[in-house]
Structures are given as structure tokens and as C-alpha cells.
Amino acid sequence: MATIQKLKNRGRDTYRVLIRRKGYKALTETFKTKEAAIDWARKREAEIDLALPPNSDRDKECSVADFTFAEACDWYAHEYVHHLKARTQNTYKYRLALCRKAPFAEKAFLVVDQFDIVQWIDARRKQGRAEATINHDINTVSGIYTFAAEKWREYKDIPNPVALIKLDKPKLGKSRERRLQGDEYQRTCGELLKAGHKEAYHGFRLAIATGRRLNEITCLQWPDIELKVAIPLAIYRTKSNLKHEGICEERVEDVPLSPWAVSILKEIGPRKSGPVFSIKGTTISKQVRATYATLGIKNLTFHDLRHEALSRFSEIGDDGKGAKLDQHDLAKLSGHRDPRTLAKYIHKRTALVGQRIATVTPADR
């Protein structure tokens, strides 16, 4: 039975749900309304009832062989997704909801094959879904089969239908290379201030000054920031997860701040405690998108600002002034652990590259 507790958060009523069930890890979540808390509790308890692991005390005969694909989605949500960070859980819940509506959802889990997946891919394409979106969908399906094979020894040779698809997989396009052009930065800043979106204005500039993800910026707390030291630092809770026995743990990084980033934080106003931003990252992103639309700026997303920032960092020293940042320096600033991923964010301007090779003289022969 779920327990719902009324709390006070910044002067507002919130409702925390706690679900305890023997043999399961406790579930907890906080909501703004009691109705939302009750609805969530009912859904989670229903998932627990459906998601019985094999050889459980309540049903000795329960196994993957008895599941439909939809029931396997519920089992996966409880056994794996439940242990992830809250933000990651929300993404998975959305993907699994789509999987439960797939044409093969009521088929037996072990009977679903690559032909079912290919038909689903074709149907998603007819709905106008992007190739990247379809790729996320089938990767979720693949994850369910991979996890089931790892979890149940007797079914370790379960064929993964997604892995059997060779030719009809979604075709992913090239990575984004969009950077700010002309006076787009000045116009965006001016329009955000004109519209009264001061926090979005600060977030927009801080994204370029730091090169961090929007969620990392909006989760910053004032105690995490050191401005009165020789090298100002910020502590970020990163998106990258460290997996240990199937559980994702939060990674914390201390990263140096540029003078520009320090000046922006001082504009916001250093405080002893509390969050740097009082609004969510989704609100900032929405306000910036609306500003782009007002100004007629096309094909530019908030995440493109991360590309812009890291490209600017990589261009430091190209004019011969100051030392260049190497790959390890850039990785420290961005939080990337894979150099191949970092490389996708760096797009040097052609003019700057041209200026550098113009100084190259032919070698004597």
C-alpha cells in the first residue's frame, strides 16, 4: 500500500509518495498535486503486480516464456529502469509507452522476430517519424532482450530481433554542425531581455561561456560554485552515468570557470545557498526557442550552443595569442569521456583554418 505524505517546498504544498513491497526496492516520487501522486502510486503498484520476477514467492511458474512483449516492457521498467536517475527514467518511460503500443505488443515475448520489428519501422516512417527517433525506439526494444538474456540464465540464448536486422535499420544523418552566425548572439540576447526572460538570458550566455548541458547548468547550486579563489570552479552533476551492477550512479565533476562565466554568475548574484536558477531547464529552452522564432532564426537549438562553446574553446590560441587547449583540456571543460564524442562538437570556422595554413611556408628541397 502506498503512503502519501504532504510536505512544504519553498512555501508550496507538495506530496511525496512512498511504496514499499516485500522483495522490491522502495519507490518514491514527489508531486505538486495529491491527484498526480495518487495516479502515480496506482500505476507503480500495478507495474509491480505485473512485473513479478521468475521464481518469485508469489508465482513459482512466472518466467519470460509466459510474458507478452507488453508485459516484458513492464518487467523491464521495474527491474532495470527503476534503478536509473529520475531524468533518465522519464526518457525510458516515454520510450516504453511507445513500445507497449507496437503492433506486436500482445505477441509472446519469445515469438517476436525481426520481421515484426521491420514492419514497425516501416509504420513509424509512414507516421513521419525521424530516423533518429525510430533508432531510439528499436534500441529500447533491443535493450529489453539484452537485459532478459542477462537476467535469466535459462534464456541466455534468446535471439535479439533487432540485432538480426541488417539492411532496413534507420539511416542516421550526419551530426549537427550549426553555430551562431552573424549577429544572432546579440539579437537573441536583446530579444530575451526585451521579453523579460532574464533567467533565460543568463542561461543562454552561460551555456556558451561554459559549454555544459542545459540540465547541468540549471541544476547548479550556489554552494557548488567557488568564485573567490584563484581559479574559480563549478561542481556539475553530469549526465554521464557510472554503472555498477545495473545501477546508475551520479558523477560529480569540478570544472574551472572562464572569466566570462564568472562575470555572468556575478550578474545573477552570488548567494550562500539555493539554486542558481529558479526555473527549470525546459522553461529556459522553451523561451529561447520562442525568441528564435520571433527573430526568424532557423535550424538552431539550445544544445547547439554546446557545439558553439566547445568550438570557441578549440579556437583559443589559433591567432597566436595565448596557449591552445588540448583534447584533455576540452574534455575536462565539456565532461566528455569519449574523444570521438567530443570531436563531434568541434567545428572550427573555415576562415580561421585558412589563416593558419596561410602561414605555412614550403619546405626546402
Q: In words, what does this structure look like?
A:
The chain folds into 3 domains: 1-50; 63-173, DNA polymerase, domain 1; 184-352, Intergrase catalytic core (hpI Integrase, Chain A, Orthogonal Bundle). A hairpin with a 2-residue loop joins strand 5 and strand 6 (247-256). The chain is globular. A 3-stranded antiparallel beta sheet has the order 1-2-3, with helices on one face. The protein contains 14 helices and 6 strands. It starts with a strand and ends in an 8-residue tail after the last helix. Residues 52-62 and 241-248 have low confidence and may be disordered. The chain has helices at residues 34-50, 69-79, 86-100, 114-126, 131-151, 184-194, 198-210, 214-218, 259-268, 281-295, 304-315, 327-334, 339-343, 350-357, and strands spanning 2-9, 12-19, 27-31, 225-226, 233-244, 247-256. By secondary structure, the protein is α+β, with helices and mostly antiparallel strands. Helices cover 45% and strands 12% of the residues.
